Amino acid sequence: MCLHTHVTRRFRPKWRIRNGGLTSARRNEKMRLRKKTVGNVKQNTSCEEKLEVKFIDCYKGSGVFAVGSIAKDKLLTHYEGELISKEEGNRRHESYSNRDGSFLFFFKYKKKNFCIDATHSSGIGRMVNDNHKKPNSKVVVEEVDGHPVLSIYSIRLIHTGEEICFDYQDPSVPWRKFLA
User: Does the pLDDT at position 16 exceed 60?
Assistant: First the structure.
């Protein structure tokens, strides 16, 4: 039996992802910051039709893979979810269980701290894994209709079958000691 444990993912200096747990009751609470759903917002054509999610192993879980070649500087996908404040993101991180998992992406936009909670999202952007040694993509904070959108772009040619990954920019994430 394979049990996958979710680990906190953090981004520095501009953003971070926390991968913790899931509680649906907390999702319905009102927050001080007006919630915005960032989903299916495409400001240019993405390459999502050339991406698929596959299970890798019990430790790493799943990842996103290219099912066709993707050129450099192409929009791959978006990190879709609920736009919330940093404070609400921290609160949710503490309340989610490690067993069920969560996907929290912390970032700065117009000198303010935000979080996108993709825990309940079906978007594949939340499944992109960390690779600090040889990333093939990067996250860019863009503005669409006055709101931040996290876009994932290729930074080089990506070959068929290659896993999509970017640098989480946090040397303290626990899985990096196994990759050294």
Answer: no
